[in-house]
Amino acid sequence: MLRAQTDWYLTARYIYALGLDGPSWAWEWLRRNRAYQTDWKRARQRRRRHKSLVKSRRAPKDRVAPWGLVALENPETPAHNATVFWRRDAISGLLRAGVRQSPNDHVAPYDLWSEPGRKAIAVDGDEAQLLIRTTRADHRMLFEEPSDITDRIPLELRLDAPNGDRRQFDVARQFLFERSCERGPSLPIHPRAPLMMQMLQTIDGRASGASQREVAQVLFGTDAVAAEWRVSDRLKARVRYLEKRGRFFVEGGYRRLLDSSQG
Question: Which of 35, 162, 189, 233 suits 75 as a labelling partner, its CA being 20 to 30 A distant?
Answer without folding.
Answer: 189
